Amino acid sequence: MARVYVSSVIDAPVAKVWERVRDFNALPRWHPAIRDSRIENGEPSDRVGCVRDFHLQNGDRIREKLLGLSDYDFFCTYSILESPMPLTGYVATLRLTPVTDGDRTFAEWTAEFDCAPEAEEGLVSGIGTNVFQAGFNALKRQVAG
Predict the structure, then answer these.
(1) Number of domains the chain contains
(2) Domain with 36 in it: what CATH number?
(3) Which candidate, 82, 85, 83, 52, places its Cα nearest to that of 66?
(4) What's this model's pTM, rounded to 2 decimal places?
(5) Distance CA 104, CA 133 (A)
(6) Mean pLDDT within 47-63
(7) What is the reported pLDDT for 48?
(8) What is the pLDDT of residues 100-138, one digit of tens each?
(9) How many CB atoms lie within 10 A of CB 50?
């Protein structure tokens, strides 16, 4: 099983960062790699079980299902249902933790999935850099200060 782990410190209060990321349909509003997104069947974007259908800037389509969401613990967990990436069993969690020293946010994004051994290094690196770290960098620009 492949694992991806990326963490960062965002110079903004956890409530401000959570307000930006908690909406499961809001990826295009904060992540630069996402072109558009919609929640299938008109369901609320914070309902566990809802499915988001989105396109990357390059046109690739991905469908993901919300598995868990906590306003108390500041996390969301989701799985990939459809993707052009050669992987299966993908489950990821984006978690925020308050940093009381300076009223900042510790952000962690993790994922586990299965893939062919020869694809693992590229997938782990690509997801870690182009999805997780790129998202954190965008959040830092948008909410810091």
Answers:
(1) 1
(2) 3.30.530.20
(3) 52
(4) 0.94
(5) 17
(6) 97
(7) 97
(8) 999 999 999 999 999 999 999 999 999 999 999 999 999
(9) 20
Q: Is 85 helix (H, G, I), strand (E, B) or coil?
A: coil
Mean pLDDT in the chain? 96
User: 26 pLDDT exceeds 70?
Assistant: yes
70: number of Cβ within 10 Å: 12
For residue 145, the model assigns a pLDDT of 59
10 Å Cβ neighbour count for 118?
A: 8
Segments forming the whole domain that contains residue 57: 2-143
C-alpha–C-alpha distance, residues 61 and 56, integer Å: 7
With vertex at residue 116, the alpha carbon angle to CA 110 and CA 122, rounded to the nearest 5 degrees, is 55
Tokens of 142: 């948008």
Burial of 65 (0-12, 13-18, 19+ CB in 10 A): middle
**80, two tokens:** 């990939």
Identify the H or E element spanning 17: helix 14-21
Our CA angle for 110, 78, 105, nearest 5°, is 50
